[in-house]
């Protein structure tokens, strides 16, 4: 056993020793070992001794710091006890090279934190003693929390001195650091050099596709995810006239795309595997749809439907149904109201449609199981001139967003009887307020024609959406979440500029 007596920092001596008098060792079987002490102009100074039982005692001294490579050369050291000192800081590589160390004690020091992976070189460690230290159990302790869960070593209880909610608790008893020690961000992943007004995503045969409506280029561009290049590339192109919407419909193993146009009628295309492209499948009656503004897909009792909201003065928003051969008009909802959007949602186990309109407040239609048609049910009062309505669920609660170009847009929650407002968002110039989520992160994207678009994030404690980030998108018309290869993306369509693809990233604050 060996030990130093005096006021030292491990790896850096406070005063230069002139002899080995301060070193005490005993035993009858030894190995060569050395410790380097560096300070000022002294680059290195080595002391060699015979260490018996490969034990090293540095107890009851005045050490405050253990620096990198403090035990260089002690390759066969098995027991290291640095107890009862005043150690506050340990460098990341302090124990580098101690591959045979089995027992380490840092008990009764002044440690409040340990650097990440400080024990990574201790491959043979059997027992670690950290008693008598109280740690700040914040993000810097996350790595230690995870290491304690994974290590095969026996480790004494690690007690917390803070934060307040963890004071005097064991680090092992902390549930998780994921919420406190991670944040998120949206960073540009890819720029698509063209304008667009809507983006839809669909999966087919384990691949992810995106359909983008480009009215100025008169295209419905279909992109696919490239698993090698890790970006979205062109797959097919459906041409048309003033295309304002491309909505994918999957029926069994068949893939259809509803292409809504302002001129020349709207059409449905089907993917032809022999041609590896989309070909025209059927037309949608021009007499029924003259100015399509939204396409909404839904399923009731295993039957496939879609509805087109018509925003013309004599518009006739219409529901279409799949009959195993094609899509045919099934129900006209109402006319003369200049509908701007349609949203399908389940309210208390019953199917509903919400229609927003330029000329009336949003109305709620309920599916009648006897007539198998939508019938008027209620309305959302005091919300005139709503451009878009979107629904989402969060923690088993149902919410909707109502977008307004002038005035405040609204977030509303279903309370078992009606939708009630929980938050108003200033939204001058807004054309879309899109809810989306990635894992347990819930967001709203508020697009503006006059200023920066804003992304809000849900605050679970305050129960409101808080401003999270501003992004610049010229005349945004839609926001769409797309996930593939364990990565999450966010498409921002632009009526006047480039279409942008942001990636949603997780940032570990403990690093």
Overview of the molecule:
With 511 residues, this protein is mostly beta strands. The protein has three domains: 2-173, Alpha-Beta Horseshoe (Leucine-rich repeat, LRR (right-handed beta-alpha superhelix)), CATH 3.80.10; 182-196 and 289-508, 6 Propeller (Neuraminidase); 197-284, Thrombin, subunit H (Beta Barrel), CATH 2.40.10. The protein contains one helix and 41 strands. It comes from Athene cunicularia. One of its GO terms (biological process) is inhibitory synapse assembly.
Give the topology, please.
Layout (H helix, E strand, L loop, with lengths): L1 E3 L18 E3 L4 E7 L9 E7 L2 E3 L7 E2 L12 E3 L7 E2 L12 E3 L21 E3 L4 E3 L5 H9 L3 E2 L3 E4 L19 E11 L5 E7 L2 E8 L4 E8 L4 E9 L3 E9 L2 E8 L4 E7 L4 E8 L7 E9 L2 E8 L5 E7 L4 E9 L3 E9 L2 E8 L5 E6 L4 E7 L8 E7 L2 E7 L4 E7 L4 E8 L3 E9 L2 E8 L4 E7 L4 E8 L4 E9 L2 E8 L4 E10 L3
Parallel strand pairs: 5-7, 6-8, 7-9, 9-10, 10-12, 11-13
Antiparallel strand pairs: 1-2, 3-4, 14-41, 15-16, 16-17, 17-18, 19-20, 20-21, 21-22, 23-24, 24-25, 25-26, 27-28, 28-29, 29-30, 31-32, 32-33, 33-34, 35-36, 36-37, 37-38, 39-40, 40-41
Pfam families: EPTP, LRR_8
InterPro entries: Cys-rich_flank_reg_C (IPR000483), EAR (IPR009039), EPTP (IPR005492), Leu-rich_rpt (IPR001611), Leu-rich_rpt_typical-subtyp (IPR003591), LGI_related (IPR051295), LRR_dom_sf (IPR032675)
Protein name: Leucine rich repeat LGI family member 2
